[in-house]
Design brief:
D-Maltodextrin-Binding Protein, domain 2; 20 strands; 486 residues; alpha+beta; Beta-Lactamase; 6-stranded mixed sheet
């Protein structure tokens, strides 16, 4: 197809011509309507952003970004007539549906919903096509997804769920983690286990009522139920060692027509990410107040040294994981059409927003918000992310760093003796390195490990059992006993 002077037409030019023709033919029908990226009755141009407030690893492109107002500030620098409409959803599915209908311009969601978004937008084609343009939070080992069971459950591994019902949101990353992990235990999720397709709120109730033996979900549901004493961790997604992440997706047509708006959004996301790194407690409190989640749960995932690492660059490990996830989604019938990941991934926008340091930043997987400082009780510098923990004292604006599990226990003991009220204690699991609540872990005492490693925390019964099997003199002790004797 050629333009009026005989030159080949680009895709963007074809779109503009189609839009012009469509507008000419349908003005009477569209009068008074407002759609994404269009002018409202007052003359302002609305940019519509879809997000998930309780999917807290998207906060730098959603909840936190909205509360800080960074996007609006950047947008006004582009054009004072721009305004932002924020639309909050429970999952990524309705965001995808609204994007395909041209009613949402920019969205944020988890990796599996991103794949579904890309697959369906490519299948629909034309102006419906979308691209993945940035990352919000990620975990290279997959620890953002977990499987929990009731506090009194006798299950110690996923193998113990054979013949039981497991609640999961089919097609979500939490569901994918469960299915892939269950297969490693020799279970056929379609035969040996009944997977009940439920929204997280429904599944949480099913677990408490006993109609489901386990609950497989994404952040922040597992941590929330464990924190509230309504569940205990059975399987840590970090044991799967498959990256999981959340990201930003945009309508291609919108990005082509308004690259300055996309640039403003990504620069605002970078601003929000820097705020989260520099003010982790305040950021967690802001998200908690907006979502109703306990601040301790938000901080577990999003705080310094948290389960999630926040970095907007698109890393090779995450791109590769996206490719590896496609067969699973096809196997459960969520993706029917082939997906060209190469054309779906577009890092040109975030590359421009980050600038000259992009390649170096994208190549690094170190947490920019690692726990640092000095452990005042042990007198040691804190630096190893595999062992560094934190103690959060009620009323304090900063957490206290601990060099390792034993030092963390010593910190807790001293604070208790000093009459301090402790809000939360976080420490990485010995087996997979996943940060978890210290008082919800299984503590093992191993006299042969030496004083510095005498007490070690394990997030799951299976991890603790494996350690005990290899260390004949080791034994399980309660958290309070470990604190007293550290």
């Amino acid at each position: 197809m050629k333009d009026p002077v005989g030159r080949p037409m680009t895709r963007s030019l074809k779109r503009r011509m189609r839009k012009t023709l469509a507008a000419a033919l349908s003005v009477p029908l569209l009068a008074g309507c407002t759609v994404a990226g269009s002018a409202d009755a007052g003359g302002d141009t609305q940019i519509v952003v879809g997000y998930q407030s309780k999917t807290i690893n998207t906060v730098t492109a959603g909840t936190l970004l909205r509360s800080l107002g960074y996007f609006e500030k950047r947008l006004k620098q582009v054009d004072p007539d721009y305004s932002v409409v924020w639309r909050d959803y429970d999952t990524g599915a309705p965001i995808t549906a609204q994007m395909l209908a041209g009613k949402i311009d920019i969205g944020s969601m988890g990796d599996y919903p991103l794949l579904i978004n890309g697959s369906r937008s490519q299948a629909q084609g034309g102006d419906a096509r979308t691209s993945w343009i940035a990352v919000t939070g990620y975990n290279l080992r997959g620890a953002l997804n977990s499987v929990v069971v009731a506090p009194d459950s006798e299950a110690r591994t996923l193998r113990d769920l054979k013949g039981e019902t497991v609640s999961a949101s089919v097609g979500s990353a939490g569901h994918g983690t469960f299915v892939q992990a269950a297969r490693r235990y020799g279970l056929d999720p379609g035969k040996d286990v009944k997977v009940e397709n439920q929204q997280p709120t429904v599944g949480a109730s099913a677990l408490q009522s006993g109609s489901a033996a386990a609950f497989a979900q994404f952040v922040a549901w597992p941590g929330l139920l464990v924190h509230k004493g309504q569940a205990k961790l059975l399987y840590d997604g970090g044991s799967l060692d498959v990256p999981t992440f959340h990201g930003v997706v945009v309508r291609d047509q919108f990005a082509e027509e308004r690259p300055d708006v996309v640039d403003a959004f990504l620069r605002a996301q970078i601003d929000a990410t820097e705020y989260l790194h520099e003010h982790p407690v305040e950021a967690a409190e802001s998200v908690a107040s907006t979502t109703g989640l306990p601040v301790e749960v938000v901080y577990l995932y999003n705080g310094a040294g948290g389960v999630a690492t926040f970095d907007p660059t698109i890393k090779k490990e995450l791109r590769d994981a996206l490719v590896q996830d496609i067969p699973f989604l096809k196997s459960i019938g969520v993706i029917d059409e082939p997906l060209d990941v190469g054309s779906f991934v577009d890092d040109s926008h975030i590359r421009k927003a980050v600038g000259a340091s992009y390649d170096r930043q994208a190549a690094s997987t170190a947490n920019p918000a690692a726990i640092t400082g000095t452990d005042e009780v042990c007198g040691e510098k804190v630096g190893d992310p595999k062992t560094a923990g934190e103690v959060w004292v009620e009323g304090e604006r900063e957490t206290r760093p601990a060099a390792g599990p034993v030092c963390l226990l010593k910190n807790v003991r001293k604070l208790r003796r000093d009459g301090k009220k402790i809000k939360a204690v976080f420490v990485p699991d010995t087996a997979a390195g996943t940060r978890w609540f210290a008082d919800k872990q299984i503590w093992v005492e191993d006299p042969s490990a030496g004083d510095a490693r005498r007490f070690q925390p394990f997030a799951t019964p299976e991890a603790a059992d494996a350690y005990l099997a290899d260390h004949s003199g080791a034994k399980v002790v309660s958290y309070d006993e470990a604190v007293r004797r550290a």
